[in-house]
What we know:
Structural class: mainly alpha
Radius of gyration: 30 Å
Number of domains: 1
Strand content: under 5%
Oligomer: single chain
Largest sheet: none
Amino acid sequence: MKSIIKHLFFVACFLIAFTSNVYAYLDPSSATYIIQIVAGVFVVIGMTIGITWHRIKKFFKGKERKEVITEEIEDIQDENLAD
């Protein structure tokens, strides 16, 4: 823990010692634009994970359903042949 505090103190001192003036203007709309970009990235990541997860679940559940349906069809065919 002391190591982390020492590193943070060193970084803070370094940043304070080597500062320079920047003559630039960022209007409020550019901050909003940056927030929209970050939000869009999170939405895309979330949708990608969701779609992939859904496909994985569908793959494994679809296989089980096919086996159950096949067994039910075989049972029905066996009943019809017995009649």
